[in-house]
Amino acid sequence: MTSDAPSIDRPARRRKPVEWLTLGLLVPIYGGFALLTWFHQLLPLWLLVPAAGYVVAWHGSLQHEAIHGHPTASRRVNELLVLPNLWLWMPFRVYRDSHLLHHRDERLTDPLDDPESYYMTAEQWQRCGRLMRAVLQFRNTVAGRLLAGPPIAVAHLWREQLPRVLRGERRALVAWGLNLLGCALVLAWVMGVCGMPILEYLAVFVYPGIALTLLRSFAEHRAEEDPANRSVIVDAAWPMALLFLNNNLHALHHREPGVPWYRLPVRYRAMREALLQANGGYRFRGYGEILARYLLWPKEAVVHPAYRPADGLSLLQGRGPRRPAA
To answer: What does the radius of gyration of the chain's CA atoms come to, in whole angstroms?
Structure first.
């Protein structure tokens, strides 16, 4: 007789054609955004900025769900639901393509093959000037990730995407064309209807929204030889867990990326000990612990340990061919 409890190796059950809980998120996210932008002149900044950042980052979490096939079985419908790009900066299709590459767990944290890695190779590090090295070291603190992270992320995106657009690559042109449409919808409301200047929107909504998302990703992964040990579990309280749609249970998400956000906590509670044993105990009690440990202290070195000149590919050797350093 077998147990009905979820197994750490058992695949998730098949999703329903429409996930109504995920679809229902459209109401508080877009409704909250509409209210905050409409009443922006009446709200004090101490209330507006965190609320605005929360709703923009929350929309980013909904985009993440859409990337993984939620809330419907239609890829086009899911993309349409998140078409209004509240944080303006990254086209949904660019996010989708890079994030799905990121889910090759054998390549997690690899600075050459993981598009979401914050590590660098020793050669890349050597090419940075002193000022850039200091900025990148600062970015490895929580304060640096929140303050310097957004402009660095935007600059990195443009550095990677602009040559593709200029070369006329169809995939890039379509992605950015759809992004322009999504941004136009947002700015037509923000500037045309609500009368909010673009710089105010960038400062009050976009910057905090990107920063909160970067807080989520700050400790998501670490460089370890075993790919199973590279993804974190953050036992966050409900405001942050809801904000990130339980993506704080990141090791579980990487193990079962097709499981919708509202099922992750139940599965985590059922397999908690086995999951923490599998990921090498890489866990934080919440984002408060991450802030306390790393607010002004770097979490780790910028250079990936597998790419130090002294030991070559010590962690990632034998993983197959990889791209040359950029």
So the answer is: 20
pLDDT tens, 155-205? 999 999 999 999 999 999 999 999 999 999 999 999 999 999 999 999 999
Residues in the chain: 326
Residue partners of 199: CB distance under 8 A and separation at least 6: none
* Count of structural domains within the chain: 1
CB 247 within 8 A of CB 253: yes
Side-chain-side CA neighbours of 30 within 13 Å: the count stands at: 15
Tokens of 67: 């990337």
Tell me how far apart the alpha carbons of residues 33 and 190 are, in angstroms, rounded to a whole number: 10
Number of Cβ atoms within 10 Å of the Cβ of 314: 13
Q: Please report whether residue 178 resides in a domain.
A: yes
Q: Distance of CA 270 to CAs 9, 188, 213, 273, Å?
A: 12, 46, 27, 8
Torsion of CA 313, 281, 22, 209, to 10 degrees: -70
| Cα–Cα distance measured from residue 28 to residue 125, given in angstroms and rounded to the nearest whole number | 43
CA distance 195 to 200: 10
Tell me how far apart the alpha carbons of residues 195 and 198 are, in angstroms, rounded to a whole number: 9
How many other CB atoms sit within 10 Å of the CB of residue 107? 20
Q: Give domain status of residue 176, yes or no.
A: yes
Buried/exposed code over 59-86 (b: 16+ C-beta within 10 A; e: otherwise): bbbbbbbbbbbbbbeeeeebbebbbbbb
- Would you say residue 10 lies in a domain? no
State which residues form the domain around 141. 20-306
The b-or-e profile of 28-44 (16+ CB within 10 A means b, else e) is ebbebbeebbeebeeee
In a domain, 12, yes or no: no
Of 314, 294, 319, 291, nearest to 303 by C-alpha is 314
pLDDT digits (tens, 9 = 90+) for 3-35: 333 334 344 445 568 999 999 999 999 999 999
Cβ proximity of 185 and 83 under 8 Å:
yes
